[in-house]
Amino acid sequence: MGSSSSDDLREMMKNLASNTVTLQQNIISFQQETRPSIHNFEKQMGQVASSVGKLEAQMNGKLSS
Known about the structure:
With 65 residues, the chain is mostly helical. 95% of the residues lie in helices and 0% in strands. It is rod-shaped and about 90 Å long.
């Protein structure tokens, strides 16, 4: 195995390590950006569920009268 092949392999390993770090940073950033959106969505779904419950209660009251 010549020096050029070793250098090429070394360079490929450095690139792989660098790309892996970049990917990890991007994943962390994505998670941090996504977390508040998910929290907001959960809050909105709770509000929808509450509204549906109130509408059902109103409809049940009207039907039983």
